Amino acid sequence: MISLGYITTCRSCGSDFLEDILDFGEQALANGLVISATTKDKKYPLSLVRCSNCHLVQLNYTVPPDILFSNYVWVTSSSDMAIDHSIKFYNTLVLEKLNSKQRKILEIGSNDGTFLKPFKEMGFEVLGVDPAENIAKIANDAGINTICGFFGRDLAMKLSKFDVVIARNVIPHVSNLNEVIWGIKKCLHPKGLAVIEFHYAKTILDELHYDSIYHEHLCYFTVETIETLLNKYGIYIHDIRESPVSGGSLILYCRLYPDGILSRYLNNASKNYISKEDNSLRRWRNFACDTSNHIKKLQDFIAKAKDTYGKVYGYGASARSSTLLNVSHLKLSKIADINPLKQWKFTSGNHIPVVSPEALMNNKPKCICILAWNLSDEIIRTLRDKYNYKGPIIKPLPGDPKYVL
What we know:
Helix content is 34%, strand content 24%. It is of the alpha/beta class. It folds into 3 domains: 5-61, no CATH class; 76-279, Vaccinia Virus protein VP39 (Rossmann fold); 303-404, NAD(P)-binding Rossmann-like Domain (Rossmann fold, 3-Layer(aba) Sandwich), CATH 3.40.50. The longest helix is centred in the C-terminal third of the chain and has 29 residues, at 281-309.
């Protein structure tokens, strides 16, 4: 059951002790690109709270998921990094985690099927679940069997058992956390493997990823907080790997165990991470202060760049760029994005035109700011090698805004 609007209890443990951390006011939806610069954006509260009981940091407002996800503009295959990660992800599972008889794979939030594609090509039985009708169609047209719908108790009850259940960057997006984790357990073969990837809250704190805060990202997990949630359903972490996704994510490899010594022993896999986490209210409120300071630095940096170069253009109309631009009140001339679903539209909130990279380069830009900075290596390589762009490039995060070579 999804509770919409303002929450009064923690999405994980149900406690009503929620403490304020940071408030960005009302903001337009990060992926809510519009077709006209005169469109009036629908805005929703965007602020963080922390549960004083289980310590999960989360947004205090839930936007209806059909508004957020039923027609989506992020396509996994539009990123070279994501494609490369999908191959490594496949190799780790097949070479290290699965036996030869484990051939049945379910992915929740499977997008266009990029991460299921290597399994499909090697003869695995694959099934994706994704709520975006336009993206599910892309996956099905590519031969990746995909159900269009929201994963939860009702859908899980209709599915069979799987050897692997994958949930990449999904669990932080859902309000009905307990229902989804219950569904993962329901669909998982007793000797199967649950693979959960999420943007790591410690990295968000350490590197000041305040641009990762937007309406789709309801929850900001540490290893401790996600382990608490998983253990309630008999799901135990037995291995953790790091991922480049979102500028710093973790991949948890989890199994079902009945209880007792084995499950407690396997929890040792997470102890090294938990020992280094500071998920305290004080730490998050310092994060809020550091965010305010960084926003001022970014405003000053872009203002000086405009004084020097006349105009500053953007590259990467990512969801995180919406938070970065809107909370900083920055206005760039145009933003390039490789994804055709975003091109020839306007960003939400500040209505900056989104164009193709070719169209941007036709403007002969003298200064470009990488907004999808988590893909900066890929974008810099494209600008320098493909478009022969020799001008200055700004990287706004992590750390202070800076020019990069």
